[in-house]
Amino acid sequence: MNLLRTAVLLAKKDLYSELKTKQILVTQIIFAALVIVVFSFAFDPANNTTKAVIPGVIWVIIVFAGILGLNRSFISEQRNDTMQGLLAAPMEAASIYLGKFLANFMMILVVEIISIPFLFLLFDFKFLGSLPYFLIVIFLGSFGFVAIGTFLAALAANSKSSEMLLPLLLFPITTPILIGVVQATRIILTNMEKLASALAWIQLITAYDVIFFVVCFLLIDYVLEV
Amino acid sequence: MSMNLKREKTALPVIPTESAGSANLSNLLFGATVVSMLVSLYFIFIYAAEEKTMYAAQKIFYFHVSSAWLAFMAFFVTFLFSILFLIKRKRIYDTYAYVSAEIGVVFTIIVLTTGPIWARSAWNTWWVWEPRLITTLILFFIYIAYIMIRQMDGVWDKKARLAAVFGIIGFADVPIVFFAIRWWQTKFHPIVFGEGPSQKGGGIEDTMLVALLVTITAFTILYSYLLRKGVSFEKMRLSVDQHKEKLRAKMGE
């Protein structure tokens, strides 16, 4: 209980400072928009076959924009050595992780809420699938990605070149989740008859989320040691 | 920073010089590696039957499978020693984990090289996006990342701790990667052992199986030799560092 309360407090602190500076969120959203523009050069939006790549594009946006935020989440604590302060405070390392996770998760959700409709609009994509299932997939996928991403960001923050290190750590580890969400999103957006197979993918993503959330929780003490 | 340096100095344990017994073991392993490799070459090229359609190109299969076995074993050893390190915090466990991961990466590269050479003559393509291939590739990337964590600057115990954590996470990820890709892709890889859905296992001739088992044994011995050698190199590096430190202290006086 105490763990959760301090975590929420930490998340509030992060989100409040983000609300004041709007540094990360604005960068993430502009970056997402730029990715969409680059994709419009790569795949002609007027072409009908482009619809097939939309599910993949959604996740490329989330992953690329997400990694920008993840990079900052622990680095920003280093400037004034506030990380030492957090570690010395009377709370567990797990609640630091949980707080950072909540803040990152909120931010990526905001980015998704803005950028995905924008993508559909610009690529003139008619949404035919089921909206609740789509939201579930987006939610579960982002959850797993941010959970493992926050953990590895804490790990990479110890390096001087953590911005370069984090993607190298994060992408191979999140392979299963990326495969799963792209497949599930594709089925839900374009081919609702195969819903059973999408549900199987959702199960895989959920299993991954649970396993890695627990593993990260257990191992975060070793990462955030003084 | 100066505090870190001091910590590094105190953290260095006194390393006993290699005793005669362990040198003997090292020589023994070296001899065993040479002999078993020669024996396995005999089994591969002379004893085992030649494949009907692929002829000599099939011989690479023995090295390919054995290297893959060695790499997976090496990563498993890294996983075990990572857990041990986090519990016991002894430097020697960390050294074992690191050396084993390095050996694993080298043999993953061998797997990823011999595979396409074989595939070119068997499937007429260098690479297919197929579960086992992609899993091996992802595995390769995970352990490259592991080695990059070791290259960070800082005191050794911090690096060892972070690498151990990543070694555990990375290994736990491998089965999930494999299943995810297996669901995603259809089968292409020949299933030699056990049954697949459509292929009832290509099966393997007895002579080939013997040759394969002999090669795998040889590679296992090779692995233990390399691990031993690698760990003794790491120990030597540590002791050189120690001597340098001592010398520096003396010159400073």
Automatic annotation (TrEMBL), chain A:
The keyword Cell inner membrane applies. InterPro entries: Cyt_c_biogenesis_CcmB, Cyt_c_CcmB_bac. It is a multi-pass membrane protein. Its main location: membrane. Keywords: Cell inner membrane, Cell membrane, Cytochrome c-type biogenesis, Membrane, Transmembrane, Transmembrane helix, Transport. The chain crosses the membrane at residues 24-43, 49-70, 101-121, 133-156, 168-189, 201-224. It is found in: Cell inner membrane. Belongs to the CcmB/CycW/HelB family. Required for the export of heme to the periplasm for the biogenesis of c-type cytochromes. This is Heme exporter protein B. It comes from Neobacillus kokaensis.
UniProtKB/TrEMBL annotation, chain B:
Residues 26-189 form the Cytochrome c assembly protein domain. It is found in: Membrane. The keyword Membrane applies. Keywords: Cytochrome c-type biogenesis, Membrane, Transmembrane, Transmembrane helix. It is a multi-pass membrane protein. The chain crosses the membrane at residues 28-49, 61-87, 99-119, 131-149, 161-184, 208-227. The keyword Lipid metabolism does not apply. This is Heme exporter protein C. It comes from Neobacillus kokaensis. The lineage of its organism: Bacteria, Bacillati, Bacillota, Bacilli, Bacillales.
